[in-house]
Design a protein that fits this description.
Elements (H helix, E strand, L loop, with lengths): L9 E5 L3 H13 L3 E5 L2 H10 L6 E5 L8 H11 L5 E5 L3 H8 L5 E5 L4 H12 L21
Parallel strand pairs: 1-2, 1-3, 3-4, 4-5
Helix pairs in contact: 1-5, 2-3
């Protein structure tokens, strides 16, 4: 794995719905998070296999439409990646996600529609405070102000 030039957290976003992915990418970028997007589970595995910079976290839609679902992708990522936080994004209740993914270790649930700064805060919480390095000109919300 090669080192990155930026100290910004780098995440893999796996979301099959293009508009949702675009909104999440834009919101996370405003909060200082570098995002690499994949539109399917198969594409996510290909990106991880080709990537040499590594990912600090994975944001993974649990229902990816045709092909692999999010749980199958997470199982494969657990096999090939070093320990990396996985956030399951879903419009389903957490109890349903737990029923599907409960056998996996170390995953977090985020309901779809999380406002950008709150989504970023959850990522920063999982990564630890030392990973948050605000860039010049970032506002308090983008700089990781905690949300109750």
């Amino acid at each position: 794995m090669t080192s990155r030039n930026s100290s910004a957290p780098r995440i893999l976003l796996v979301e099959d719905q293009v508009l949702i992915a675009m909104c999440e990418e834009k919101a996370l970028a405003k909060c200082g998070i570098e995002t690499v997007a994949a539109r399917s589970g198969e594409e996510a595995l290909r990106v991880v296999g080709e990537d040499r910079a590594g990912f600090d976290a994975i944001l993974l839609d649990i229902d990816l439409g045709k092909g692999m679902d999010g749980v199958a992708v997470a199982e494969e990522l657990r096999r090939i990646l070093p320990p990396t936080p996985i956030f399951f994004l879903s419009s389903a209740p957490e109890s349903e996600v737990a029923r599907k993914a409960g056998h996996l270790d170390d995953w977090l649930y985020l309901p779809k529609g999380f406002e950008g700064a709150r989504l970023a805060n959850k990522i920063f919480e999982a990564l630890g405070p030392e990973r948050r390095k605000p860039r010049a000109g970032e506002g308090e919300e983008a700089a990781g102000a905690t949300v109750p």
